[in-house]
Amino acid sequence: MCVTIVTSSSEYVFLSFQLLYIIDSFADILNFCTLNKMSGIKIITTSTVRKVLKYEELIPAIERCLVKYSLGKIQQPVRSTVEVEKHEGCLMTMPAYDTVDDVALLKVISLYPKNGTTNTAPKHQSTILYFLPSTGILAAIIEAHLITYMRTAAATAVATKYLAPDNAKVLAIFGAGGQARSHFQTMNKIHKYEEILVWNHTTENGEKFCKEISKTFKNVRFCSNAKEAASNADVIVLVVSSQTPVLKGEWLKEGVHVNSVGACRPTWREMDDECMNQCELYVDSREGALKESGDIIMCQPKKLINGEIGEVIDGRCKVDRNKKTIFKSLGIAAEDLAAGHLVWKNLGSEI
User: Fold this and answer.
1) What does the alpha-carbon distance between residue 118 and residue 188 come to, in Å, rounded to a whole number?
2) What is the pLDDT of residue 40?
């Protein structure tokens, strides 16, 4: 193909530089594609994850991984965090290795709570690097936003299965975002509720969420205040990413079970001291909770952890399900390990 450009000499120089830049950019793309083909690194997108990762497999896999983690069979450090103070965000890394199933990966995350208000960027972005443990070779790069939603909700479902009262009738969901949607799906897979109550800071979003889930669950009601939702609930899910308490202990019914998911930073809280001190406390990771959970770190008097949910599942930690309980979920790399491996395994010959 021949292109003739008729222009002045100065414009000619400028356009020449532009064309060179475009050609160079295409070369970079071609080099990346060639490198990807030669190295065998697979790029697994969110749409592919959605096709192959199903809760019917994921929930049991998360249950198993929580036990393995508590038995020390999954190696992982507490999430490493670098604060990006200028932009009020942070960068995190979460590596893990499963010594039983021989699986290794690293998840990288950015968390920018103000995104979506001053720009259109998502608050939370994440990617999984999936390695071959025998050689350390990077086998796949997996878009992990959906995985984070799904594995978090699956862990909540597992905790609810072991901590909530058997006769729970009313589920309350605080929040109306992606985590609220994923939790609606998993909570209804492990128990049949008679009613779902929703509360959200923004009424418009809360009502929109209610309308959406009412297509598959008929008895849904939006509550204008948090007290109304909490005081009528047998099981509560907190997924509002709150930095100050939204749930008060004075609202809680006897025997209620609370899943606290949204406050995942040392300075953030979803529950007040009265709520914390009324309930038996269980966590995904004791080490992580003591370093990352503002609900635990800032609670007065100091709140003791009854056990990890993995210890509850395998019977090492006994639970009285007639008492008020909290599952404090920070999200651990072991859960990403279980979910990421399912994605890799289910793709099979496609990869």
Assistant:
1) 35
2) 85
Q: Which of 264-281 are b and which e, b meaning 16 or more Cβ less than 10 Å from the residue's Cβ?
A: bbeebbbbbbbbbebbbb
Whole-angstrom distance, CA of residue 305 vs CA of residue 120: 39
Half-sphere exposure in the Cβ direction for 312 (13 Å, CA): 26
Between CA 112 and CA 124 the distance in angstroms is 6
The amino acid present at 211, given as its one-letter code, is: K
Kindly indicate the confidence band of residue 36, based on its pLDDT and cuts at 50, 70 and 90. low
Whether 331 and 155 have beta carbons less than 8 Å apart is answered as yes
Mean pLDDT for the stretch of residues 26-54: 72
Find residue 195's DSSP bridge partners.
170
Among 331, 286, 335, residue whose Cα is nearest residue 59? 335
Question: What pTM was computed for the model?
Answer: 0.86
CA distances from 1 to 4, 5, 22, 27 (A): 10, 13, 16, 18
CA 337 vs. chain centroid, Å, equals 13
| Residue 246 scores a pLDDT above 60 | yes
Mean per-residue pLDDT over the chain, rounded: 90
Q: What percent of the chain has pLDDT over 90?
A: 82
